[in-house]
C-alpha cells in the first residue's frame, strides 16, 4: 500500500494530524534543533508537546542550557513563556533518555525473574551490547516512544532519532535486534550438549571456539540462554512497536540540507518507508539560505574579504536552488524549511526564534 | 606562511605517518579531507590506499584503483569476516562450511563488536601492501566504537587467535611512529567541543598517540569586527546577506577560541565553494592543493 501523501502538507498541518512525528536524517543536519523547534510550535498552538532526543552527544541538552536531562521529562514551558512573553495553554517538555538505563529498565520489564535480570546484567556481552551494538540506541529510542505513547500526558511527541551515517539505520534496528531472538538461532545456542546437533552446526561452533577462545563462547551461551527466557515478551513488545509505527498517529519526516545529493537520498528514504508501510509526511530542509536576499553593497562595505564571502554565499544559494529543483522533479513533498542561523541555539529563547522562523509555505504549491 | 607552518607542526607530523585515521563528528568533511590526504600521497608517487567503512553510497568490499598510485577500499564487515575466517582456518571445504553456516553468519552480523573488529582487522592486514593507508572513520560515536570494541574484545576473546590479533592490531594503532589520528572539525561550537571530547577518548585508548586537529571549511575572513560577542546577539537569525556574512566570520573567530584557549596546534582548510555536481573528487582535489601549499604535507 502506498502511503506517500498526494498533497503537500506543511508542518503545522502534520502537527494537527499526527500525534507522533519521527524525524530521521544523517548526523550534522541539525535534526535536534529542528525537532525541538517543531515540538515547540505544537506547544505554541496549545498542545502538550514533548521532544525526545536520543543523542549520545546530548546536543539538545547543551543547546537548551540543560546540562543533565535524564529519563524524566524536563518541563521547559516557563522558559518558553518567558521567551514569547505570554502565557500559553500548551506545554513544552524535553527528554534526553539515558540509553544504558533505558536498556536496563527494558530488561527488567521483559524478564520473568530477578535472577535472569541479574544474570544478563552481569554478562560481559550485555555490557558491550548496550554500549556498542549499533542498533541499541535506535531500538531504545523506539522503546521510549512505545512507552511514552501510552502516556496520556502528551498530545504531541517528536522523536529525534539518533544520529547515524545512514538515515535508514533507525528503521532497521528492530529487525537487527529481533535477530538475536530468532528462535532457531537461540535454540542452537541453548540446546544442552547431549541433544543431537546437526554435525554442520557442531563443526561450525567448534571452529568459532577456536577463533574466539572459550571465555567468549561461555559468555555467549549464557547470554543466549538468558535472552531465550525473554523472547516471548520481547517479540510482543516489538509487535506493538511496529504496529505503532505503522499506525496513522505516526508520521515520519526526513531532515536534510539542500545539496545536489539530497533528492537521491530522499527518494531512497521514501521507498524504504513504503516497504515498511510507514507514513512519510515530508522533507524538512535545514540550513536554507533562500531567506537571505543579496543587497547592493555601499562602496565602503565592498571590501575584498566581504566580496569573497559573498561569492561563496552566491554559490551556496545557487546550489540550494538546484537542489530544490531536483526535489520538485521527484515530487518530494517539503513540509518545512529552517533558515541557516547566524549563530548556534543557546537557549529556549533562541529556539523560540527558530521555531517562529520555520518556513511553512509550501514551495511546490507556490510554484504552480 | 611560515607562521602557519610552525603552528601546524603536529598536523604535518601526524600526516607523515603511514596509517592515518581521520575522525570527527558527522558532516564535518571527513570523507573529502581523508581523500585529499590520500591524493597528495599518491601524487608524490607513493602506493596509497584510501579506506571508507561501509559507505552506503559506494559499492562494497572490492579495492578499486582510482589513479596510478591510489586505490580505494570500501571496507565491508561481512566480506572482511569471510576473509579473516578463511585466513585462520584455511580455504578448504571446512572453511566454506563454516562461513556458509547460518549460525556463523548471524553471529558475525549481529554480535556486537565482531563487526568493528573485522573492519579494523582488514585495514591492519592491508597496511603491509601499501606505503600509506588513509582511513575515513565513521562519525564520532561509531568511529570510537571501532577502537573500543577492539580493545574490549581483545579481553573477551582471551586465549583464542582473535585475542592475539586484536592485541597486535592495537599495538600498531597505539604507536605514534606508525599511526596518526587526525580530528576534523568545523569552526562551529558543537563540532569544536566534540572534537575535544573525541581527543580525550582517543587518548584514553591510545595514551601515547596525540591526535592532530584540523578546522575545515573556514569561511573567507572579512576583517570585520562587531562590538558584541555572538552570545549577546538577540536572535540566532540573520537579517540580511551582509549581516549574515559579517556575523559568520565574527562567529567563526569567536568559536575558534575553544581551540586557541587550549593552545591547540591546529591546521586550517578554507571553504571550497561547492562545485555544480557536488563531486567529492573535485572538493578533495582543491583541499589536496591547500594541504601542500599550506605546508601540512
In what order do the strands lie side by side in the largest sheet of chain A?
3-4-2-5-1-6-7-8
Query: Spans of chain A of 5+ residues with little confidence (pLDDT < 50)?
Result: 363-368
If helices are DSSP runs of H or I spanning 4 or more residues, what is the number of helices of chain A? 16
pLDDT < 50 stretches of chain B:
1-6
Could you tell me how far the N terminus lies from the C terminus of chain B, measured between alpha carbons in angstroms?
14 Å
The overall pLDDT of chain A, averaged over residues, is 80
Report the structural category of chain A. alpha/beta
Biggest sheet statistics of chain B: 8 strands, mixed
State the total count of DSSP E strands of chain A.
8
Task: Give an overview of the whole structure.
- The complex is a heterodimer of chains A (368) and B (297).
- Chain A has 368 residues and is an alpha/beta fold.
- Chain A has helices spanning 11-17, 31-44, 59-63, 77-84, 99-110, 114-122, 124-132, 136-149, 169-180, 183-190, 199-212, 214-246, 262-276, 304-329, 348-357, 363-367; strands at 20-24, 48-53, 74-75, 91-95, 156-160, 250-256, 280-288, 334-339.
- In chain A, strands 3-4-2-5-1-6-7-8 form an 8-stranded mixed β-sheet, sandwiched between helices.
- In chain A, helix 13 links the parallel strand 6 and strand 7.
- The relative contact order of chain A is 0.17.
- The model of chain A is unreliable at 363-368 (pLDDT under 50).
- In chain B, a hairpin with a 2-residue loop joins strand 3 (63-67) and strand 4.
- Chain B has 13 helices and 8 strands.
- Helices cover 51% and strands 15% of the residues of chain B.
- Chain B is an alpha/beta fold and 297 residues long.
- In chain B, helix 8 (140-156) runs parallel beside helix 10 (189-205).
- At the A-B interface, helix 7, helix 9, helix 10, helix 11 and helix 12 of A face helix 4, helix 5, helix 6, helix 8 and helix 9 of B.
